[in-house]
Design brief:
5% helix, mainly beta, 16 strands, Ig-like_fold, Immunoglobulin-like
């Protein structure tokens, strides 16, 4: 999503936790042929009216030399190899382009079970499944600051929002426009506020912030807006 991330994949690594909803697969990976974590989910940006699918996989202690993902109907949607690497790749996060019509994503990636098959650099085989849903959670709504609000205090700022009941988590991103400074946080689904740590905000600066509602199946809906802090007096 073209959100407050830098750019595409907004909560690609909210402290690495936004793969937070990369659900663990029961059991030790290398010993019983299972991946440690697998997920497949949809992410939509409410303002941009776009959507994408994301795949996340973590293998065993040994790296993956190959990874194949099959959609319902046995159609191969991912087929990756690392033929010249001795270490391989242990963890992968892949995302699709972001068409403006989420129906395009849903048509290309039907709901149902996605089968993951991997081979480690030592020849062990890993297998697992993750379920994809086409149901998005309802989005949050900003309460404070309001979108594009100006003269927001740069100290003791608490973001507030409303969100639907029953969501698994709220994902927060705050980014200072034109800089490398940002905050990413994953909060319980019951959270309705977040206090910005003192010292992060600067007077007279433009900021972008996003709130994502995360469903139990991993799908998420993101809203984004901007605000400007008050100048020093």
């Amino acid at each position: 999503m073209k959100t407050v991330r830098r750019h595409n994949g907004w909560i690609v690594a909210a402290v690495a936790t936004l793969s937070a909803f990369t659900y663990p697969v029961t059991g030790a990976a290398a010993e019983d042929g299972r991946f440690q974590k697998l997920s497949v989910y949809l992410e939509r940006n409410i303002q941009d009216h776009d959507a994408e699918i994301r795949f996340e996989a973590t293998g065993a202690e040994d790296g993956l030399a190959a990874l194949k993902v099959s959609a319902p109907g046995e159609r191969t949607v991912i087929d990756l190899r690392t033929p010249d690497s001795k270490l391989g790749v242990r963890s992968l996060a892949l995302e699709s382009p972001e068409p403006a019509d989420d129906g395009v994503v849903r048509a290309d990636f039907p709901a149902g079970a996605y089968r993951f098959e991997g081979t480690t650099t030592k020849g062990a085989s890993l297998r697992g499944e993750a379920q994809l849903s086409h149901v998005f959670p309802k989005p949050a709504a900003f309460e404070y600051p309001r979108p594009d609000q100006r003269d927001v205090p740069a100290t003791e700022l608490t973001l507030r929002w409303s969100a639907p009941k029953g969501i698994e988590a709220c994902a927060i991103v705050i980014e200072q426009t034109g800089s490398a400074y940002e905050i990413r946080a994953l909060l319980p689904g019951s959270a309705r506020s977040f206090t910005v740590p003192e010292g992060f905000l600067r007077a007279g600066k433009a900021y972008k912030f996003a709130i994502g509602t995360v469903a139990k199946d991993g799908n998420r809906s993101i809203i984004e807006a901007g605000f400007t802090t008050a100048r020093s007096r």
